[in-house]
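Hi U.,

Before I forget, here's the chain from the pilot set. I'm dumping it here mostly so it's searchable later in email.
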Amino acid sequence: GALKIVKKWANQHGKSEIICFEGAFHGRTIGALSVTAQEKYQKSFQPLLPGIQHIPYNNVEKLRETVTEKTAAVVLEFVQGEGGVVPATPEFVAELASLREKFHFLIIADEIQAGIGRTGYFFSYEHYGIRPDIVTSAKALGGGMPLGAFLVTEPLVNVLVRGEHGTTFGGNPVSCAAGIAVVDELMENGLLDHVKEIGEYFSAQLRELQKKYPEKIKEVRGRGLMQAMVINEEGYPYVLKGIENGLIFNATATNVLRFLPPLIVTKAEIDTAVEVLSTVLK
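Structure:
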């Protein structure tokens, strides 16, 4: 839906190009796959959509070089998930906002992994004080039920007209009820504040582990309860060791251990997880 809005809006404004970023993951359907700049996902399904440019993430100079009057949209995760839990830098986002002012393109924020409270704000772009034109959401939005949605700003509300977009299972009442419950819990019961507080605690504990194992841990990064450790070797063997010791996490971007605990996780549970990680890293 988000890409269809971009395409129609672009046709109306004489624009044709979409910019996306290396390391991003936006999905497996042809449109989403076309803006997922990872060869391992794309190689079996060529040719993909034309007019899409892949550039390095957080590279201000390359972004400045690539954007033109033909740019219809820039699509990004403000915290890359599959790319290794990489937050956008403030400088990068500031340049993106400045270029939008100059060239009048759309910004699509993919909040499917980093949104719905995961980073301590309802959406991760809120860390940067920017307002995207389109926001995509799913996964946690349904609280375990299948639910996806996209949001647009007022100028884009009427781009699609009746009959131009639809879904077979869209508007399922059970899934939507679950989504309303998720939003209420996040916005009315202090859960976002909890995520910010416990996320800072988790990050601090991971940094203590980095001090303990500096030869193994290169970097700790993330926002809220979307945290990661970059290690000096392949991560998957550590995933298996974690499972053997009762802790589930995964490895992405080869050598990044990614931690996405439930938003209701407690400090005591974080402490237990860090003890297991310490054992795994020995």
